[in-house]
C-alpha cells in the first residue's frame, strides 16, 4: 500500500510499474545501514577544508562501486570530484560536502565530552551531508535504470565549504555549465524546504610586517605589526556605524607575537565581511582595505592581503522550493526511538532558551521566503544553474549550529535519520524533475527572470588559485 501511495504522489507513467517507480526509495530502505556507516566514518575522519583526503576517497569509492564514472581532482582541488551516471539530459546535480570545523571536538554522547585526540569536529554536520547526498545520487541511478528514463545524475564532491569556497572554484572552472538543475541540503534542527537566500561574503587574511626590537631597551627601533593589526581593527570597528544595516563584519587575530618584550615583526588578522548584495560587499571591501593600508602607513609596516574566499547570495527559485516542500510533506518528518528520545532530552536540557521545541523533528516547517544571515558557496552554484535546497532535523531541535551538541548528534542515529530523510527528499524531487517537463520549464523561466539577461559572473574571490592551505 505504501508503494502504491508513493507511486500516486510521484505520478506513475502507464508503462512503469509501481515497484519501478519507487526503486529509489527501495534502494534507500535496503541500504540505510550503509548510509549510516558512511556518515559515521566521515564523522570519525573529521577532516578540515581541502584536507578531506580520506572522506573524499570513501565517497568516490562508493559511487564508483555503484557504477558512476569518477573525475577526481577537478578545479585544481585534490579532494574535489564529480561522479556521473547516465546519458543525455536532463542533467541533475546533487551537491555533497564533507569538511569539518577546526577547534571543536565532542564524542557522540549527550553530555560535554571532548575528544582530546581530535582537533576538529563535524559541528555543521557535513559528514551527514556527504553521506546523505551520495545515497540520494545512487538511489536516483537505481530509479533511472529501473524505469529506463533518459537523463544523467551527478554527484559533486565539494570540499571546504567552511570558509574555503570549494564550489566557487568548481563553478569558475565550468563544471556546472551543462547542468540543468542542482540540488543540495543541509543539516539543521528542523525539517524545511523554505526558500531562504543568504548573505554574500568575502574573507581575507591581512598580514602586516614590521621590525622587531627589544620593547624596553630599543623601542624606537621597532615597528610593531601588532600595532598595525590593532589600528586596522579600530578603524573597521568605527566603520560599523556607517555601513548598511544588514552588513556583518567579524574577525580574529590569528598571529600577534609571542612575547611582550619583543616588538612583533609579523601579525595577521582574518576578516569576514557579509551583506545580502554582492556589489555592496565589493564596495565595503574597498573601505576595509583602505583601513588596512592606513594602518600600515601609520605604523610604518608593510601590508599583504590574501583573499581567502567569497560567495554570492543564494538565488532563490520558488518553483523548485515549492516542489521540494510538497515532496517533504509527502515523506514526513523523523520519529525517534526510545533510546533516541532519552539522548535528545539530555541534549535539550543543556540549552538556554531553545528556539525550537523537542518533538518538532516530526514536523515539516511551514513554507516561507526568508533571509538567512549565514553564507554558503552554494550561492555561486545557484547563480550558475537553477538550484533547490532543504534542511532536515539531524540535530536535536533547539541545537545551534557549530556547537558541541551538533557534533554529538551528527555522529549518532539521530543524525543518520536526518541524512536518510534528506536522501529520500532529494531522490524523490529528482524523479519529479526527470518526469515533469512543465516543472522544468517553469523553474528555468524563473531562474532567467531572477538572474537577469545582463548578468555576468565574476567570482568574489577573483582569479586566485584554490586556497588549499587556508586551514594549515
UniProtKB/TrEMBL annotation:
<dbReference type="InterPro" id="IPR017145">
    <property type="entry name" value="Aminobenzoyl-glu_utiliz_pB"/>
</dbReference>
<protein>
    <submittedName>
        <fullName>Amidohydrolase</fullName>
    </submittedName>
</protein>
<dbReference type="InterPro" id="IPR002933">
    <property type="entry name" value="Peptidase_M20"/>
</dbReference>
<dbReference type="InterPro" id="IPR036264">
    <property type="entry name" value="Bact_exopeptidase_dim_dom"/>
</dbReference>
<keyword id="KW-0732">Signal</keyword>
<dbReference type="Pfam" id="PF01546">
    <property type="entry name" value="Peptidase_M20"/>
</dbReference>
<dbReference type="GO" id="GO:0046657">
    <property type="term" value="P:folic acid catabolic process"/>
</dbReference>
<feature type="domain" description="Peptidase M20 dimerisation">
    <location>
        <begin position="203"/>
        <end position="296"/>
    </location>
</feature>
<dbReference type="InterPro" id="IPR011650">
    <property type="entry name" value="Peptidase_M20_dimer"/>
</dbReference>
<dbReference type="GO" id="GO:0005737">
    <property type="term" value="C:cytoplasm"/>
</dbReference>
<dbReference type="GO" id="GO:0016805">
    <property type="term" value="F:dipeptidase activity"/>
</dbReference>
<dbReference type="Pfam" id="PF07687">
    <property type="entry name" value="M20_dimer"/>
</dbReference>
<keyword id="KW-0378">Hydrolase</keyword>
<dbReference type="InterPro" id="IPR052030">
    <property type="entry name" value="Peptidase_M20/M20A_hydrolases"/>
</dbReference>
<dbReference type="InterPro" id="IPR017439">
    <property type="entry name" value="Amidohydrolase"/>
</dbReference>
<feature type="signal peptide">
    <location>
        <begin position="1"/>
        <end position="19"/>
    </location>
</feature>
<dbReference type="GO" id="GO:0071713">
    <property type="term" value="F:para-aminobenzoyl-glutamate hydrolase activity"/>
</dbReference>
Amino acid at each position: 500500500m505504501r508503494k502504491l501511495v508513493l507511486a500516486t504522489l510521484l505520478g506513475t507513467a502507464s508503462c512503469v510499474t509501481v515497484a519501478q517507480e519507487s526503486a529509489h526509495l527501495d534502494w534507500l530502505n535496503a541500504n540505510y545501514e550503509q548510509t549510516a556507516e558512511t556518515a559515521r566514518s566521515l564523522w570519525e575522519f573529521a577532516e578540515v577544508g581541502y584536507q578531506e583526503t580520506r572522506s573524499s576517497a570513501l565517497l568516490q569509492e562508493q559511487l564508483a562501486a555503484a557504477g558512476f564514472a569518477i573525475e577526481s581532482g577537478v578545479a585544481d582541488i585534490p579532494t574535489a570530484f564529480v561522479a556521473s551516471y547516465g546519458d543525455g539530459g536532463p542533467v541533475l546535480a546533487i551537491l555533497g560536502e564533507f569538511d569539518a570545523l577546526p577547534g571543536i571536538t565532542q564524542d557522540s554522547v549527550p553530555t560535554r565530552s571532548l575528544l582530546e585526540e581530535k582537533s576538529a569536529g563535524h559541528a555543521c554536520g557535513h559528514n551527514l551531508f556527504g553521506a546523505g547526498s551520495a545515497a540520494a545520487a545512487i538511489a536516483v541511478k537505481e530509479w533511472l535504470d529501473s524505469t529506463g528514463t533518459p537523463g544523467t545524475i551527478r554527484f559533486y564532491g565539494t570540499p571546504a565549504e567552511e570558509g574555503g569556497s570549494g564550489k566557487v572554484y568548481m563553478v569558475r572552472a565550468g563544471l556546472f555549465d551543462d547542468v540543468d538543475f542542482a540540488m543540495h541540503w543541509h543539516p539543521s534542527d528542523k525539517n524545511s524546504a523554505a526558500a531562504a537566500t543568504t548573505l554574500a561574503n568575502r574573507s581575507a587574511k591581512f598580514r602586516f610586517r614590521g621590525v622587531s626590537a627589544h620593547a624596553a631597551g630599543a623601542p624606537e627601533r621597532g615597528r610593531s605589526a601588532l600595532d598595525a593589526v590593532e589600528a586596522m581593527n579600530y578603524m573597521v570597528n568605527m566603520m560599523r556605524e556607517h555601513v548598511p544595516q544588514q552588513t556583518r563584519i567579524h574577525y580574529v587575530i590569528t598571529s600577534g607575537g609571542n612575547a611582550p618584550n619583543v616588538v612583533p615583526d609579523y601579525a595577521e588578522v582574518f576578516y569576514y565581511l557579509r551583506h545580502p548584495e554582492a556589489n555592496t560587499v565589493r564596495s565595503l571591501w574597498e573601505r576595509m582595505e583602505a583601513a588596512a593600508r592606513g594602518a600600515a602607513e601609520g605604523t610604518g609596516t608593510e601590508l599583504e592581503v590574501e583573499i581567502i574566499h567569497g560567495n554570492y547570495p543564494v538565488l532563490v527559485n520558488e518553483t523548485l522550493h515549492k516542489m521540494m516542500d510538497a515532496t517533504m510533506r509527502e515523506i514526513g518528518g523523523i520519529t525517534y526511538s526510545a533510546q533516541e528520545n532519552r539522548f535528545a532530552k539530555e541534549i535539550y536540557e543543556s540549552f538556554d532558551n531553545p528556539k525550537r521545541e523537542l518533538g518538532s523533528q516530526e514536523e515539516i516547517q511551514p513554507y516561507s521566503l526568508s533571509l538567512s544571515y549565514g553564507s554558503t558557496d552554494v550561492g555561486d552554484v545557484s547563480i550558475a544553474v537553477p538550484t533547490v535546497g532543504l534542511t532536515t532535523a539531524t540535530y536535536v531541535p533547539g541545537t545551534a549550529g557549530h556547537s558541541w551538541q551538533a557534533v554529538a548528534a551528527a555522529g549518532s542515529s539521530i543524525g543518520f535519520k536526518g541524512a536518510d530523510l534528506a536522501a529520500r527528499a532529494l531522490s524523490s524531487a529528482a524523479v519529479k524533475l526527470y518526469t515533469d517537463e512543465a516543472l522544468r520549464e517553469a523553474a528555468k523561466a524563473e531562474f532567467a527572470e531572477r538572474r537577469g539577461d545582463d548578468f555576468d559572473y565574476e567570482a568574489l574571490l577573483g582569479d586566485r588559485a584554490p586556497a588549499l592551505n587556508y586551514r594549515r
